[in-house]
Amino acid sequence: MMFDDFQFSSILVSTIRNAPVLMFAAMAGLFAERSGVVDLALEGKMLAAAFVSAAVAYATQNPWFGILAGVGISAAIALLQGFVSITQKGNQLVAGIALNIALSGLTFVLAQFFFMQGGRTPDLGSARLFDIVLPGSDAVAGIPFLGWFYTKLIGGHSALVYLAFALIPLVHWILYHTRFGLRLRAVGENPHAADAAGINVERTRFMAMLCAGVLCSFSGAYLSIVQSGFFLRDMSAGNGYLALTALVFGNWRPLQTALGCLMFGFFAALQVQIEGVVFPGLGKVPGSLIQMIPYVVTVVVLAGLMAKSVAPKAIGVPFVKSR
């Protein structure tokens, strides 16, 4: 493909399709970390939800049953993580990494045991989540720019894509305009003061972990039921860690975090688009260099913003009730 064939419009559409994986995981991490719990297990919860969603969707030939099953397993893992980190006062970083490693192996073994296809599930076919065609798409399809904008950029996506973008104002409202959001931020900043004010710190953190588990499940379901149409070993491919980077980029705020997810989604789409492109004076860029783009951007973002980002003050610190 020559440089003249490079289409920016395709990158924008791909960005919209790539971002929900990070958005769901980042919003999950936002709830957990705003409450004071470091959520390194986003990767593991995504993999578990992706496998269970694909397996149940294939067995029932219904993607919605698969999504519900993914919600259940991810929420259960989040509560287990909460038991270790909140109730037992365990090291949150170690617990998160342990869950990631365990679930990476467990999902592969279970997929091989049930389906005998090299650690993946069969193609879902009609059990994949369908794309939504907006009303009037046929009428405007032929109109320059408007047709592309309405039918491809805004329309033509699955329900999970629209849910991901709807979460941005919803999470902002919950975090800053509800009693639960106020308590969540209080226990993440100063749990002892929150406890003195009558807030149950452990219960609030468990509720935050439950929210994180539910939201993270959508990320895994999106990977297997929408993007790929099957489960594959380690198909999360580091998106859980990229979501945490987006949290740092967004300073643990919903809108800024979503913008960070869109940024990473854009560079992931750019990577796919420029692979095989022949640039004038440079020729074809090696594929290994192209695959580095999202990770180089991650390092640059972390190096430039870590000093400026202000995390919740009590993050990573187990709460021990004063006597």
Automatic annotation (TrEMBL):
CC annotations in GO: plasma membrane
Transmembrane helix recorded as keyword: yes
Molecular function GO terms recorded: transmembrane transporter activity
InterPro entries listed in its UniProt record: ABC_transp_permease
Residues in coiled coil: none
Compartments it resides in: Cell membrane
Protein name: ABC transporter permease
Organism encoding this protein: Undibacterium oligocarboniphilum
